[in-house]
Specification:
The complex is a heterodimer of chains A (418) and B (117). Chain A is an all-alpha fold. Chain A is built from 18 helices and no strands. The chains are: A mainly alpha (418), B alpha+beta (117).
Chain lengths: 418, 117
C-alpha cells in the first residue's frame, strides 16, 4: 500500500481502537484528551513518514507514539489536577493512577474496549440520533465531514451535533463497561438498532460517495461481528442482524452499474452476487435460530434469504408475504407495508394487491405511487402513467427520479406499440 | 384514533353435530387470517393480533357455581379476539368486513375500548 493510502487506511482501522482503549482507561471525562492524543499521533505520522519513510511496523509505531503521548498528557494533567483540584472540590481526578498506568494495546484489550464503548455510546440516556453520529465518530473513526456527507448534512451542523453528544456522555458520566448479564438483552436492542441504522445509511444512502457508503456497511458488520464473537453478547438477535447484513451486501456490487446508477432487483446480474456472503448469511441465520425469541431481524433476514433465490416461485413469494405479515405485526413501517403489497401481488395476483395498496394511505410517498404504477401496468396503463407522474415530483433523489423516468419511458413505448 | 376490540364468533360451535376443525383445515385457514392481520398491520391499524380461544371453557356463576361449556344458551361461541385502531366505530366495522370468520358463517362484534385511567 502506498503511503498516501496507508495513513487514511490506518486512521480508519486504528484510530477507534486507540480511542477506545484510552477512553476505557480514563472515562468519558477525558474523551477530548484521548481524541487529541490520537489525532496528534496521526499528524506526527504523516509528517515523519513522509520525510523518513515508513517505519517497519506502522501500526506498532502508532501504538508506541500514542502511548508516549498519553503518558505525557497524564504527567501534565497531574500538575493540572494538583493545582486546580484542590480549589475545585467538584473536579474529577483521573481514574487511573498515572504513576503505574499501563496502556494495554494488545488485541484482546482492543476488542474488549471497543465492545464496551459500543454499549456506553448506546446508553439509554443518549439520544438515538446522537448515538449513530457518536458510533461513526468514535467507533468507526469517521470525521465530521464524512458523517456530514453520509447524512447529507453540513460539516458545521454535524460538528456541533457531535460536540453536544460528547458533552452528554461526559455529563451523564456514563461508564465504559458491559451491562449486567440480566441487562444485556435489553441494552443489546439499542446497540443493534444503531448498527442497523449505520448499515442502512451506507446501503440506502443517497450520498454519491460509493466508497464511503460501502465503508459504512463494512463498519456496521465489523461491529456486529464483535458482538457475535463475544460470549456475553452473542445472542440470537445479534446473529440474525449479521445474517441480514450478509445477505444484503451480497448484492452490493450487483446493485450498481458502471455509472453508479441503481439497478433494480429484477434486472440484476445474479452471477455478480457474492456467494461467499450468502453462505455466511445462511450460517448466521442458522445460529440465530437457536434461541426462542423471534426478533424483527430474524424475519428480515429470512426475507433477505428468499431474495437470494432469484427464481420466481409461488413458494418464494408466499413465504415472503407471510414473513412481511409477521414483520408488520411486530413493527409497522411504510417500507414494510409497501414491500408486503409487492409480495402479495407476486403471490396472489395484481388485482388483489391493488385493492390492498389503495388502503395504505401513503400517497405522499413516491414509492407508493411507483408500486401502484407497477401494479396497474398491463391492467390499466393510463392509471399506471398517472401514478408515475405523481411519483416523480415526490422522489427525493436523482437516482430515484432516474428510475421513475425510465419506467415512464418504457410505459409510453408500450402504449405506442398497442 | 381509538382502539377497538374485535370479537370473533363462530355460529354453531356449541352444536353437538359440529366437528372440531382438523389440523389440515386449521392450516388452510391460517393464510386468510395471516393475510388479513398483515393487511391491517400494513395500514398501521393493528394494535394487537390477539389470540384464538379453545372451544372448551367454564362459566363461573354468582353463586360460585361453576358450569362447563359449551354454553347451551349461546348459539355462538367466542373463537378469538383482536385489537385494532380506527378513527370511528364505522371505520372499525369497515375494517372488519374482510375478516375470514365471515366466510365460514361467523360474526365480528366491534366494540370501542374505553381506556382505564
Amino acid at each position: 500500500m502506498e503511503q498516501q493510502e496507508l495513513i487514511p487506511h490506518l486512521f480508519r482501522t486504528e484510530y477507534r481502537k486507540i480511542i477506545a482503549v484510552l477512553c476505557k482507561l480514563f472515562g468519558f471525562q477525558h474523551l477530548r484528551a484521548a481524541e487529541d492524543i490520537v489525532s496528534e499521533t496521526f499528524l506526527l505520522a504523516s509528517e515523519t513518514w513522509g520525510l523518513k519513510g515508513l517505519p517497519q511496523n506502522p501500526t506498532a509505531w502508532l501504538y508506541t507514539v500514542s502511548k508516549n503521548k498519553t503518558l505525557d498528557y497524564l504527567k501534565h494533567n497531574k500538575i493540572f489536577n494538583e493545582k486546580v483540584a484542590v480549589e475545585l472540590s467538584t473536579s474529577n481526578p483521573p481514574q487511573a493512577d498515572h504513576h503505574e498506568v499501563e496502556i494495554d494495546l494488545s488485541g484482546k484489550n482492543l476488542d474488549d474496549s471497543q465492545l464496551k464503548m459500543m454499549f456506553a455510546i448506546c446508553h439509554p440516556s443518549i439520544p438515538k440520533e446522537a448515538q449513530i453520529g457518536l458510533s461513526l465518530n468514535i467507533l468507526c473513526g469517521f470525521g465530521a465531514e464524512e458523517i456530514a456527507d453520509a447524512f447529507l448534512s453540513t460539516r458545521e451542523a454535524t460538528y456541533k451535533r457531535l460536540a453536544r453528544a460528547k458533552e452528554k456522555l461526559r455529563i451523564e458520566n456514563i461508564q465504559i463497561e458491559l451491562p449486567d448479564a440480566t441487562e444485556i438483552d435489553s441494552r443489546l436492542d439499542t446497540v443493534l438498532t444503531t448498527i442497523y441504522l449505520l448499515f442502512s445509511e451506507g446501503y440506502y444512502s443517497t450520498s454519491q460517495n460509493t466508497v464511503l457508503r460501502k465503508d459504512l456497511c463494512v463498519e456496521a458488520m465489523r461491529l456486529n461481528l464483535m458482538l457475535v464473537e463475544n460470549e456475553q453478547t452473542n445472542l440470537p438477535q445479534a446473529s440474525a442482524l449479521l445474517s441480514l447484513m450478509c445477505f444484503h451486501t451480497s448484492r452490493f456490487e450487483a446493485r450498481m452499474d458502471q455509472q453508479g446508477d441503481l439497478i433494480i432487483y429484477e434486472e440484476q446480474d445474479e452471477s455478480s452476487w457474492n456467494r461467499e456472503l450468502i453462505a455466511k448469511g445462511i450460517h448466521y441465520l442458522n445460529q440465530a435460530s437457536q434461541g426462542t425469541k423471534i426478533s424483527k431481524y430474524h424475519i428480515e433476514a429470512a426475507i433477505a434469504y428468499w431474495h437470494t433465490q432469484k427464481t420466481d416461485t409461488h413458494e418464494k413469494w408466499e413465504s415472503i408475504l407471510q414473513l412481511y405479515n409477521k414483520l408488520l405485526q411486530l413493527e409497522y413501517s411504510p417500507m414494510a407495508a409497501l414491500n408486503r403489497t409487492y409480495a402479495l401481488a407476486k403471490a396472489d395476483g395484481k388485482e388483489i394487491a391493488i385493492v390492498e395498496a389503495e388502503k395504505l394511505q401513503l400517497s405522499d410517498n413516491h414509492l407508493y405511487h411507483s408500486l401502484l404504477a407497477h401494479l396497474y401496468t398491463d391492467l390499466d396503463n393510463k392509471k399506471a402513467l398517472e401514478h408515475l407522474e405523481k411519483a416523480l415530483p415526490l422522489a427525493k433523489t436523482t437516482a430515484d427520479r432516474k428510475i421513475i423516468a425510465g419506467n415512464k419511458e418504457r410505459l409510453l413505448e408500450k402504449q405506442n406499440l398497442q | 384514533m381509538k382502539e377497538f376490540l374485535l370479537v370473533f364468533r363462530r355460529a354453531g360451535a356449541g352444536d353437538e353435530q359440529q366437528q372440531p376443525l382438523s389440523p389440515e383445515q386449521i392450516q388452510a385457514m391460517m393464510k386468510p387470517w395471516q393475510d388479513w392481520m398483515g393487511s391491517l398491520a400494513a395500514q398501521n391499524k393493528l394494535v394487537d393480533a390477539g389470540n384464538r380461544l379453545e372451544h372448551d371453557g367454564k362459566v363461573v356463576n354468582p353463586n360460585a357455581m361453576v358450569t362447563n361449556g359449551p354454553y347451551v344458551e349461546i348459539k355462538e361461541v367466542i373463537g378469538g379476539y383482536t385489537i385494532i385502531r380506527a378513527n370511528s366505530l364505522d371505520e372499525a366495522a369497515e375494517l372488519s368486513k374482510d375478516c375470514p370468520i365471515l366466510s365460514i358463517g361467523g360474526t365480528v362484534e366491534v366494540r370501542a375500548i374505553v381506556p382505564m385511567d
